[in-house]
Amino acid sequence: METIKNTCNREVMLQLIDRYFEAETSLEEERYLRRLLVETDCDDPAVEAARAVMGVFAVCRKISDTQQLNTASSPKRRFGGANWAVISAVASVAIIIVAVVSLMNIGQRNHQDMLSVASAGDLHDSIAQLNSIENTLDGHHNSVVAAAMTINYPETSAEIDALIKSELGLMAEAQNSVYESVVNDFTTISSIMK
Amino acid sequence: MKRIISLLMLWVIGASISIAQDQLNIAKIFDGRYHDESRASETQISGDKLSPYSLTLYRSLTLTDMPEEAAKIEPLVTRDGAKAIDREVSYRDGGLYYGFYQLQCRGAKQCYLFYLNQNRAKGNKIIIIYLEGFASPDKIKSMLK
Question: What residues of chain B lie within 8 A of the CB of A169, using their CB?
């Protein structure tokens, strides 16, 4: 009985060895074959060759597994829940700081006009340049010819009134002409409709 | 905790976008590009001097005999005007002739923009006026009379 069993195992083993060298065995089959090679006491050359090869691969696999274990035990592998908690806490603090800073900026900008907000930074605001010129001049000037452009800087209420009336007056003329053209259009339409 | 962080991140992103949108396109024409141009003139009035008009800021740019600048200025005006609460516009010869816009402004202030290109009506000036303050649209229109 034992001989038949041994013979069957040997045949199975030889089949598995053939398939192993043809790279047709699954992992389970390889494990089974390895067990058979260890348990059976066979002098067959194919079996000896398989023992030699699988023994080498087993050693190599053991070495690589050991290496993987070593790298797994490095700090990268140790990245656990505690580190993620620290990172999320730092990120949330950073977000809160950014939110507070942006709130402060909004509060500051509410006191600035929308043109100065946009002209901040590297842009050269003509009026800002005028202000800097004003600071270095003696006396008071209502307008400065900065380079070539004229910059008006009215101070008295009469000057302001005159300037606003002048410029808005031009707008008023344009608006009136627009309204006139609208009235003309409706007059034309009504005459056509009649 | 994750939900709070997500909400905070969304808030920060939204705040950044809103801050970016606060900037007016027409601010670019007040950046000193006409500094060396003798045919340009700028005016700025701010503070208590404008209290009779219920305004806090008056800023204008006038370009005389520079019709070519309209091609650069009109897109800026129309871009800001696209977001206006109210507008009155008139086009002539395929371009913007006159525009009055009540813009969206921060807080309780009102913002207004006037644009006029007289070159489209046998004139020679391009005028941009930006107003900021607490004057109502009716008060602004009454200033035109």
Answer: 144
